[in-house]
Write a structure and sequence with these properties.
Elements (H helix, E strand, L loop, with lengths): L17 H9 L5 H19 L2 E4 L1 H16 L11 E5 L26 H8 L3 E6 L11 E2 L3 E2 L15 H8 L5 E6 L5 H7 L2 E4 L24 E6 L2 H11 L22 E4 L10 H16 L3 E4 L6 H17 L4 H4 L4 H13 L3 H8 L3 H22 L4 E5 L15 E3 L2 E3 L3 H4 L3 H4 L5 E8 L9 E7 L5 H15 L3
Parallel strand pairs: 2-3, 2-6, 9-10, 9-11
Antiparallel strand pairs: 1-3, 4-5, 6-8, 7-8, 7-14, 11-15, 12-13, 14-15
Helix pairs in contact: 2-3, 5-6, 7-16, 9-12, 9-13, 11-12
Protein name: Amidase
GO molecular function: catalytic activity
InterPro entries: Amidase, Amidase_dom, AS_sf
Length: 486
């Protein structure tokens, strides 16, 4: 691991995990008030540089921490996150706390109700310290908000933390909090985790409700592929976060039960190093080879495989479903006016280049054609599930490149010095692999080694069977202990 100063100390002295902190608070080794004050101090120290936390809930969090300590004195434990300070992506409604959803029109919007995911975190005892930054409408692979501005990568000032959960990943990587709530439709959990060297889970589609991810005065037209999910600095905390997030409010919240992690020597691992014909850069390839080497040394059966589904087909289906659903929530000027597809095509092409044609095609679908696209998605899901039944995990790069310097959205990027369209390093790794709805864990696996650039993290994706989220997390936990970082 490079010697990078995240908190005026080395990364090895980062704050405790959510699991460890919750244990310390419950056992009286640390008060919730002390944990919160430590968090606020870290935010005060670094947030002016990073711009990760855009709304701070200092007064409300202090009041809640005092209540948490008083509850423990009475012998009451709220839940497995009792007194643990967390931040939440500004895409989720938080009662009484400003939520913009990445929309300039809602820069001062204060919701009256919590999103379901936020309510479940609070019920588990979490203390909401603040809201973290996201790009316009939560739709970019960088993190620039039209009102709050840019968020920087804690590992490299001037570089992007990724998007759209960029503020979430930066908050974790900087050590502000141990647990975050993000969301993913085309890589918005996985890419920031990869860029910032943290862990993220994109849960199976439909596992977690999306209520409260849009303002109450706007319809939530995106029903498929979009998923909320936990982000953390360890897989163990992802397991804890998922347990809390998927337990309904009206169901007793039992202590989390984690399936035992498999012995790495028993694992059958498939690895694919190139998706959609897009090569990963030299650093990413080196890290992936190192992952294969370490797993093989640990006794795992590791084999290289071609991508088990047609990635071009998957990306087209993603665009058709996304384009159809997004267009139903667009302002009338995009939705109902003559030439609307020309207008929208121009906007989308500016943002996503070659992906524009897929999204615009989706916007033009009839309801019947949209249902056909959903069926096509189900067919791809079954095809990938058949492959995943033959392995314990499938590992792929999270993206073709590590974090890059801030740039205008839509500008060309580089893979080992070769100019490529803005979307190309991500499209086949993130949106195309989201369409089937399988659970995916992003793990930090190494760092760049280009001497003329700051070192940045590189992650890998661990894919599991549909609705087998616990199993893929258990496998990821085993891999985490073996892979490490170089």
């Amino acid at each position: 691991m490079p010697n990078v100063d995240l908190l005026s100390s080395s990364p090895t002295s980062r704050p405790p995990t959510a699991t460890d902190l919750a244990h310390s608070i419950r056992n009286g080794e640390m008060s919730a008030t002390k944990a919160l004050e430590d968090t606020l101090k870290r935010i005060q120290l670094r947030n002016s540089q990073l711009n990760a936390v855009v709304t701070l809930n200092e007064t409300g969090a202090r009041r809640r921490a005092e209540e948490a300590d008083e509850a423990l004195r009475r012998g009451t434990v709220w839940g497995p996150l009792h007194g643990v300070p967390i931040t939440v992506k500004d895409q989720f409604s938080t009662e009484g706390l400003r939520t913009t959803y990445g929309l300039p029109s809602h820069q001062n919007w204060v919701p009256e109700h919590d999103a379901v995911m936020v309510a479940r975190l609070k019920r588990a005892g979490a203390i909401i310290v603040g809201k973290t930054n996201l790009p316009f409408a939560a739709y970019d692979w960088q993190c620039w908000h039209p009102f709050f501005g840019r968020t920087h990568n804690p590992w490299a000032q001037g570089y992007t933390p990724g998007g759209s959960s960029g503020g979430s990943a930066a908050s974790l990587a900087a050590g502000f909090v141990p647990l975050e709530l993000g969301a993913d439709v085309g890589g918005s959990i996985r890419l920031p985790a990869h860029f910032c060297g943290v862990c993220g889970l994109r849960p199976s589609d439909g596992l977690l409700p999306t209520d409260g991810m849009m303002p109450s005065d706007r319809p939530m037209t995106v029903k498929n592929i979009v998923v909320p999910g936990p982000m953390a600095r360890s897989v163990e905390d992802l397991q804890l976060g998922l347990h809390v997030l998927r337990t309904p409010i009206d169901t007793p919240l039992e202590p989390p039960h984690r399936p035992s992690s498999p012995d790495p020597a028993s694992l059958n691992i498939a690895v694919t190093d190139m998706l959609g014909g897009v090569p990963a850069d030299a650093d990413t390839q080196r890290v992936l080879r190192n992952v294969e080497h370490r797993l093989t040394e640990a006794g795992a059966n590791v084999r290289s495989v071609a991508c088990p589904i047609d990635m071009d087909e998957a990306l087209i289906v993603w665009g058709r479903i996304q384009g159809y659903e997004l267009s139903r929530g667009l302002p009338w000027v995009f939705r109902d006016t003559p030439g609307r597809h020309i207008i929208w095509n121009g906007v989308i092409r500016f943002l996503f280049g070659f992906l524009a044609s897929y999204l615009v095609a989706g916007a033009k679908l009839s309801k019947r054609e949209y249902q056909e696209a959903l069926q096509h998605r189900d067919d791809l899901r079954a095809e990938l599930d058949s492959f995943l039944e033959t392995v314990d995990a499938w590992i792929t790069p999270t993206a073709s490149i590590p974090s890059f310097p801030h740039c205008r959205t839509g500008r060309s990027l580089e893979i080992d010095g070769e100019s490529v369209p803005y979307a190309l390093p991500f499209a086949y790794h993130l949106p195309a692999l989201a369409v089937t709805g399988h659970p995916i864990v992003t793990l930090p696996a190494g760092f760049t080694q280009k001497g003329n650039e700051p070192q940045r993290p590189i992650g890998v994706q661990v894919h599991g069977r549909y609705r087998h989220d616990d199993a893929v997390l258990a496998t990821a936990h085993a891999l985490e202990t073996v892979i490490g970082t170089d």
